[in-house]
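User: Let's play a game. I give you a shape written as tokens, and you guess the letters that built it. Ready? Here's round one.
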């Protein structure tokens, strides 16, 4: 998400959505993924990435609910930064 910091986003949604702010090998730091860097993802987007996983038991409704939670928090953060 452009102009959103994944760590801040993760803090707000971690009890509602199973996600992380990066791969396991980057879990201890605030580094941007080497894959995103190799893909030339702009830093203002790369800093706002989340890693989401689904499994065979994940339902469409759960995915929709997670998407709504994430979108609402991103909107909230962007509104705070614009104020």
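Assistant: Ready! My guess for every position:
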């Amino acid at each position: 998400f452009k102009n959103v910091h994944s760590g801040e986003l993760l803090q707000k949604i971690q009890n509602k959505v199973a996600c992380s702010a990066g791969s396991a090998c980057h879990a201890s730091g605030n580094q941007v993924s080497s894959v995103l860097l190799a893909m030339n993802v702009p830093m203002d987007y790369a800093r706002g990435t989340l890693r989401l996983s689904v499994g065979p038991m994940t339902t469409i409704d759960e995915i929709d609910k997670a998407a709504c939670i994430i979108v609402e928090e991103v909107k909230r953060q962007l509104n705070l930064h614009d104020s």
